[in-house]
Amino acid sequence: MLYIRFMFKQKTNIKDIDYKSIKPVFDSSKKRVYIETYGCQMNVNDSELVLAILQNIGYSLTKNIDEADLILVNTCSIRENAEQRIWGRLDVFRLAKNKKPKLKIGVIGCMAERLKEQLIEREKTVDLVVGPDAYRSLPDLLRNVEAGQKDINVLLSREETYSDITPVRMDENGVSAFVSIMRGCNNVCAYCVVPYTRGAERSRNPETILNEVQILVDNGYKEITLLGQNVDSYFWKNEKNPEKDINFERLLEMVALVNPIIRIRFATSHPKDISNGVLYTMAMYENICNCIHLPVQSGSTRILELMNRKYTREHYLERIAKIREVIPDCSITTDIIAGFCTETDGDHQQTLSLMNEAGYDFAYMFKYSERPNTKASRQMKDDVADEIKTKRLNEIIELQNQLSLESNRRDIGKIFNVLIDGLSKRSDEHFSGRTSQNKTVVFPKGNYKTGDFVNVRIISCTSATLIGEIVEEKPHETITELKNIIDETIQIVENKIKHKIKDKIKK
Ligand code: 5AD
Ligand code: SF4
Predict the structure, then answer these.
(1) Which terminus in the chain has less CB density within 10 A, N or C?
(2) What is the pLDDT of residue 242?
(3) Mean pLDDT for each consecutive 10-residue tract of the chain (507 residues)?
């Protein structure tokens, strides 16, 4: 039997639940869940929330499909090929279920929200479909699934932020973690499916954000990335005192103040909303990383208008100029879409010229992919031929490789404070870490460990990686001088005491 819960909201009493463990439990005596995650950082963080909820009802994590009693695939709908990959994975999971008929398979996240019951109709092996705002109902849904039924909850919510649930961290290194500060999006960019799969924008209570950051710091994490589809529109209303309303600029400052050695990052910024206040806050706090992800999508004002981005090329370039003025060593990264509806070669040339003007350090680059029910799919024609999209995308990628290489070459000879993420992929003798600008640096290990901060001088690079060597810290001159003064003072005091004691003995 298929239970459909679009119409009413389920409540699980979250107050009764203990969500303290922030690392996964691996316990073969318990029911085991295997979780595979696709798509954005928000999905990675959502999988960690889901694991917190599941651990609380007795599941433990496994990294091996063959050991799993439950497979959950957290899905992405942003482009057609993201969904294709997931259909491919479901084929693999079907084979696992053929071998082990008791195995349950759940599809969660954006594709679950977009396709709803069609997912179960098209892929009979799927037992469970849960949208991004319905994870609290997983314990109830799984009870039905374990009893042999199929179940689905894709109810979107105007309030759900999962504020009170501490995610169970699935990262390997214990160094970097994501903290969601808001969910959903109100922007309705014409090409984008996110407002339909993740619902309306809502901000999370700042107290719970600070709590989660503190828990991560207490557990040894060194870098925290605040997540939202549009962090600049974060807003928490203080009903009693409007002077104490909290916007993103204020939240960023509060998080930076939790601990001065913990690095803070955030994503994603929106060019129409990023304020000077946020830039000044970044410049003021050493531990807020000098890196801004500012998706441009297109360099043509005409296309930006069709995309409903609500800014012009000129406005975007003004924001870039302001970033460079306030934070001169800030890296700027972006997202670009090639071949949106009606895009001409002239529009495309404007994208290339804007990339040159902005001098991006890094970019995510995509071919436009029409998504069902978006404004573009309803009102516009996907009229740029696929070969042209591919050609334009290749030109964008080629230019970006050049810009990334130039950006990395400018770093040669400079010294950066690097947070070590772990061993380099290519050599056990080298560490890989990141600069404040979020560039990857590879360097010989020395006597350091994952999670340490270390100064590294850049000696060469590729377009993707900086290559460096550790610079052992020499005590700063003023610190040496201060130490000498303190040593001398101690000597004087010790001598005085000795003389006093001698005087007393003489008397
Ligand atoms: N086609 C191609 N790229 C898209 N993006 C979002 N929707 C689409 C789409 N339909 C890209 C945008 C966005 C990033 C997360 O994904 O560049 O910033
Ligand atoms: Fe999609 Fe635009 Fe919202 Fe980003 S800001 S999630 S591109 S609708």
Answers:
(1) C
(2) 82
(3) 37 42 88 97 97 96 96 97 96 95 97 96 96 98 96 96 95 94 97 97 97 96 98 94 92 98 98 98 98 98 98 98 98 98 98 98 98 97 98 98 98 98 96 98 97 98 98 66 67 63 59
**CATH superfamily to which 176-405 belongs:** tm_1862 like domain (3.80.30.20)
Residue whose C-alpha is closest to residue 48's, from 269, 225, 302 = 225
CB of 194 sitting under 6 A from ligand 2:
yes
Confidence at residue 412, expressed as pLDDT on a 0 to 100 scale: 98
Atom of ligand 1 nearest to the CA of 268: 18
Q: Which two tokens stand for residue 46?
A: 């959502």
304 lines ligand 2 (CB under 6 A): no
H helices of 100-228, in order, are: 110-115, 117-122, 138-146, 194-198, 206-218
pLDDT given at position 172:
85
C-alpha 41 – ligand 1 centre gap (Å): 14
Q: Provide the residue ranges of all domains of the chain, joining segments of one domain with +.
A: 2-153, 176-405, 415-470, 480-507
CATH topology classification for 415-470: OB fold (Dihydrolipoamide Acetyltransferase, E2P) (2.40.50)
**Residue 370 Cα: closest atom of ligand 1:** 10
Q: What is the model's pLDDT at position 239?
A: 85
Please give the backbone phi and psi of residue 17, each rounded to the nearest 5 degrees, phi first.
-100, 140
Which ligand is nearest the CA of 380, by number? 1
| CATH class of the domain defined by 2-153 | alpha beta
Q: Is the CB of 295 under 6 A from ligand 1?
A: yes
Per DSSP, which regions of 271-356 are E strands? 291-293, 331-338
Residue 157 Cβ contacting ligand 1 at under 6 Å: no
Query: Which ligand ends up closest to the CA of 233?
Result: 2
pLDDT of residue 10: 37
Ligand 1 center from residue 132 Cα (angstroms): 19
Atom of ligand 1 nearest to the CA of 193: 7
> Residue ranges of the alpha helices (H) in 75-205?
80-99, 110-115, 117-122, 138-146, 194-198
Ligand 1 binding pocket includes 319 (Cβ within 6 Å): no
Q: Is 203 in the pocket of ligand 2 (CB under 6 A)?
A: no
